[in-house]
Design brief:
The chain has one domain: de novo design (two linked rop proteins). Helix content is about 75%, strand content about 0%. The chain contains eight helices and no strands. The longest helix is centred in the first third of the chain and has 37 residues.
Length: about 200
């Protein structure tokens, strides 16, 4: 078999196209999408960690502050709602689903804040080692939630930017037509308005 000029040119074109495809970021879109999904899994992991701490915290407070039944009930109900609103990676493109998830988690955060504020009225509770340990774990978990949310927001931003900019835009239009932008967390209503201070 002799190589003719058209065959050599075709072979070189195929090699050049292969190099172009590998060098131009064809793999960026799926790689960035998987990275964002992994970051989302960490967000859910941290929220689940918080939800797992709550029953012990409620039981500890209940032992000292039985008359705070309304606050305890609100925490238990908010936890139930927060754990029932789940978003898997395939739903990350739906901003409404993410808002529902965020709202449920915000309600739980508010209920926990009220529970911890009530504890100030009970010196024996505030000095209880179990309560102090749970409070410390909860504080650490809230920090982890903030970090994991920040990491997801950044991963979603990078992925969304890749879908809109060259050459990712070409790959998205050609090979990844079904890929949509990922929704990001936004500040909830409570975070946008300053708290009211009354004297």
């Amino acid at each position: 078999m002799t190589l003719t000029f058209p065959r050599i040119r075709a072979a070189l074109a195929i090699v050049a196209l292969g190099l172009l495809v590998s060098a131009c970021g064809y793999n960026n879109i799926p790689t960035l999408e998987e990275s964002a999904k992994a970051k989302w899994a960490e967000v859910q992991n941290q929220y689940q960690r918080r939800a797992d701490l709550i029953p012990n915290l409620v039981n500890t407070v209940q032992g000292y502050a039985k008359q705070e039944k309304d606050v305890l009930t609100a925490v238990v109900e908010a936890r139930a709602k927060a754990t029932s609103v789940r978003i898997d990676a395939s739903q990350l493109t739906d901003p409404e689903k993410l808002k529902q998830f965020q709202d449920a988690q915000s309600q739980l955060s508010g209920a926990l804040g009220r529970l911890l504020a009530v504890s100030e009225n009970y010196p024996d509770l505030k000095s209880n080692q179990n309560f102090l340990a749970l409070q410390s774990q909860l504080e650490g978990t809230e920090n982890r939630i903030a970090v994991s949310r920040r990491d997801y927001i950044e991963a979603a931003r990078v992925y969304n930017t890749e879908l809109k900019t060259f050459p990712g835009l070409l790959w998205a239009m050609t090979f990844f037509r079904g890929n949509k932008e990922l929704a990001a967390f936004t500040a909830n209503d409570a975070a946008q308005s300053p708290p009211q201070v009354k004297f």
